[in-house]
Design goal:
Blueprint: H1 21-61, H2 81-101, H3 125-132, H4 145-150, H5 190-194, E1 204-206, E2 211-212, H6 229-251
Antiparallel strand pairs: 1-2
Helix pairs in contact: 1-2, 1-6, 2-6
Amino acid sequence: MTDDEADPGFGTVALHAPATRGDLERALRNLNLADLEMREALLLMGARLVTLTDELTRRLDGVEPEPARPGTPAPPPTETLEVTVMRNLGSVLGQIRLADVAQRSRISLDTGPDKYAVEPSDPPCDEVLHLCQARCCTFNFALSSRDLDEGVIRWDHGQPYLIRQRASDGYCVHNDPGSHGCTVHGHRPRVCRVYDCRTDRRVWLDFARRVPAPLEDAHVVPPEPPLTELDLVDRLHARTAAITAERTAMAGGYADPGPTRGPKP
């Protein structure tokens, strides 16, 4: 049998074959993960620089960069610069990371429990949908790695990994514009499953009396309260969890679900 008569090779793809949405989104997720990991590397580099500068200032000037508390022991005289820097690096890095998470992250990821394991809330949506017009479906929120892996729920490529919304009316792309029902209800994100509108003032002025809030109130983002150190620690833990979750999800995926024949190489 000649080469021209040979069967097509396994795994080959035509040079100009279009990329699938799955391929594209996996590539984008990898770039976003690299962005997160680069940010962490820059924070570590900054912490090393601050720690080294402080220790050099102390040793060259014979004074602390800031007044030391009474009774603070000085480093052992035989301790090398490298050892001192490594000993103090952890606390400096912690302070820098806490300051960093106070800023708005470029990448948001839901790190809550698995969406299929949570107990869904039970507001009577079918009874009140004609009143509230599913305005909760205009809210912005982050998806999870599980959502991204399934590939059903769409996300905003310009604001990873926020739910994708229509430019025409601001609703989630999976919301039926006629009935306002969810067309992917079985795959809905965790946030949608646990959300309960009955106490949300953006939706109801009085749920018991079925008095909805003005529609324009749905787009009013409530101001965030001042951040405390505990809030920052929670944010830091969430970002660390997000990086770990995405790294695990990306490492466990494959481009092709099974063997396929393509054109001859």
